[in-house]
Structures are given as C-alpha cells and as structure tokens.
Amino acid sequence: AGFGVDAAVVERAIAYVKGCRKADGSYKYSWDDEKSSVALTAASVATLIELGLHDGDELEQALEWIDAQPGLP
Q1: For the CA atoms of 45, 49, 51, 55, what is the dihedral angle to 10 degrees?
Q2: pLDDT digits (tens, 9 = 90+) for 26-69
Q3: Which of 17, 23, 53, 73 has the fewest CB atoms within 10 Å, counting from its CB?
Q4: Whole-Å CA distances, 17 to 1, 2, 52, 58, 72
C-alpha cells in the first residue's frame, strides 16, 4: 500500500501467527483455539510469506500438512 510499518509491529504479527501453530504443522485461528484447517493453515503460510519469511521448517511442515489432507487434488 506504500506506507511504512514499524519493524516491531511486524515482529509481533509474526510471533502471533507462529503462536497459532500446532505441533502437526497446521495453524489454528487463535492461541486459545484448538481447531485447525486447510484454509487457516494456507492463510497463515501466505501471511508469514508476506511478512518476510520465505522459507524454513515451519513453512515446509505447514505445506506438507496441507498436501496430506484427504480430498485435496
């Protein structure tokens, strides 16, 4: 959008999304929620990429989790 965002705000956003990660690699909506989904996991991956994380075990595990879900092409 062309406006600056303080680096501390970006780091807090990254920490929040990472805090919503489950041990199996999927992502849930919030810290106190237990349900994850393909949509939430894909949105979390996209968010982390937009926030500057372009590789790493967390992203790989999330993508592998998505690929392993039944009913996806």
Answers
A1: 100
A2: 999 999 999 999 999 999 999 999 999 998 999 999 999 999 99
A3: 73
A4: 21, 23, 13, 11, 24
Q: Could you tell me where the DSSP H helices lie in 24-70?
A: 38-50, 57-68
Q: How far apart are the first and last CA of the chain?
A: 34
Map tokens 């949105």 to a residue.
43
Look-up: residue for tokens 């810290």? 31
pTM recorded for the entire structure? 0.88
